[in-house]
Amino acid sequence: MKRIVLLGLLVGGLALFLSGCSMFNQGPEIQNWQPDVSPDGESIIFSSKSDGNFQLFVMDRDTGEKTQITDNDNDDWGADWGPAGERIVFVSQRNDNTDIYTVNPDGSDERRLTEDSGQDVNPRWNGTSEVIFNSDRTDAWEIYVFSLESNELNQVTSSSDGESNG
After folding, report:
1. SS3 string of the chain?
2. 27-164 is classed in which CATH architecture?
3. Which residues of the chain have pLDDT under 50?
4. Which of 5, 28, 96, 143 is 20 to 30 A from 155 in CA distance terms?
5. Residue 128, Cβ neighbours under 10 Å: how many?
C-alpha cells in the first residue's frame, strides 16, 4: 500500500511539473508594474521594464505622455508619492545592494537614503519628512523609519522580543 501511495505522489508530482502547474506559472512577463497615483490625481508613477530593466516613469493621466525619471543599469521599483507630490521614494538595486532613494517627479535631485548590506524595501511616506520601510538588516524583517530632516534611522519593531522599540 505504501508503494502505491508513494508511486502516486511521484507520478502526480511529475505530472504537475511537466504540465506547468499554475502555482509555478507566473503568467506573462511583467512590463509595467506597481502604479501609484499622485496626490493631485493627475499623474501615475510606475516601474517599466520596456528597456531591459525596471526604471521609473511618470505618466500624465490626461495625455498618456510618459517621462522616464530614473535611468541606470539596475532595477528601480516600489515608488510612492510624497504627500504633496513633491518627492517620490523608491527602491533600487544599485551597487549590488537594495536600498531606498528619493527623487523629484522630474527625475532631478536623486538622493540615496539607506546604505546597508541588508535589503531595504517597501518604502512609504510617513508625513512629509519621514520614510517608513522594511529591512532584513538584522536577519529578520523589521520596520524602520528614516527622518529626512535629521538623517536619522530608527528601528521601530523587533522580532526578537515581539515588542516595539519606540
Report:
1. CHHHHHHHHHHHHHHHHHHCCCCCCCCCCCCEEEEEECCCCCEEEEEECCCCCCEEEEEECCCCCEEECCCCCCCEEEEEECCCCCCEEEEECHHHCCEEEEECCCCCCCEECCCCCCCEEEEEEECCCEEEEEECCCCCCEEEEEECCCCCEEECEECCCCEECC
2. 6 Propeller (2.120)
3. 5-23, 164-166
4. 96
5. 12
Domain ranges of the chain: 27-164
Q: How many other CB atoms sit within 10 Å of the CB of residue 75?
A: 18
Task: Report pTM.
Answer: 0.80
Separation between Cα atoms, residue 14 and residue 25, nearest integer Å: 15
Distance CA 90, CA 158 (A): 24
CA distance 84 to 24: 40
Give the burial class of 123: count Cβ atoms within 10 A of its Cβ; 0-12 exposed, 13-18 middle, 19 or more buried: buried
**44 CB-side CA count, 13 A:** 14
Neighbours of 33 (CB within 10 A): 13
State the Cα–Cα distance between residues 26 and 138, nearest whole angstrom.
Answer: 30
